[in-house]
Amino acid sequence: xxxxxxxxxxxxxxxxxxxxxxxxxxxxxxxxxxxxxxxxxxxxxxxxxxxxxx
Length: 54
Known about the structure:
two-stranded antiparallel sheet, flat, alpha+beta, 2 strands
């Protein structure tokens, strides 16, 4: 089944705008909480390594 990433933002007058992106066949979406892009990458590297070595 295809994954979809749905993001929303609120403009300056309060209207909410959704944006939907479909994952390509060789792509997945994962949400992580991090303070920076670099931290998010490190978190994903750890998760990837845990999944491939267990």
